[in-house]
């Protein structure tokens, strides 16, 4: 969760009944069997007898054999994630790097103390000392939108966020691929910071990776729905976290909500992009989200600086 700093400045679905006007949803190898499960690589409908478990979802026998009958161009049969990213041998790599950065910054904050914390915190416009110069995002220090998302002060704070990253991260990294997963994480982190900057008191400082973590929550909900798994576990977990978000006074709900919305939007574009223009839609969505974040920053800055 994102804490507000206390300083002054700061499952398989049951097949639907179909009428004569609705095309059959049947397994491509067994036309007499209705199904709602699709191969995560070629999107063919597959029945339980044809489902082969993969790192994310299920694949059809032809994709597992590396056959060429998917209708793609030569070379397109290389193993791909659900979102079209390259399949990596280590689906924990980016998650481990993010964990390492967060923990390294936490140790540095413990060692250096307030001087470093003051440089990393997110606040819109405040003074470093009682009569010092104005500092903050409004003064051009946009880096705070990201550095604050890697900074923590309490053990329980960094522990809870890193536990969530450890649980959610590898699953999303395997489904999206490294580059797409990293873009999701960073844009969610910035999205949470931007909403906090736009809505919060500019002198109220905050820090924590919760914007990014809630982005992973939103992305996981989208992924579970795309794979047609049981939505209840992720929805219950998300509901419990949102209850804490809006009932604990020291939590920056703005960062949580901002990250959640950005993560869900980007994940939807990642896993629902049409196969023919997949990369264009996916990276276009990331660019559009980033552009909206920049516009919000500029408008809020103009208001604060008058």
TrEMBL record:
GO annotation terms (biological process): proteolysis
Entry membrane topology: Multi-pass membrane protein
Main location: membrane
This enzyme's EC code(s): 3.4.21.-
The keyword Protease is annotated on this UniProt entry: yes
Keyword set, alphabetical order: Glycosyltransferase, Hydrolase, Membrane, Protease, Transferase, Transmembrane, Transmembrane helix
Subcellular location: Membrane
Protein name (record): Rhomboid family intramembrane serine protease
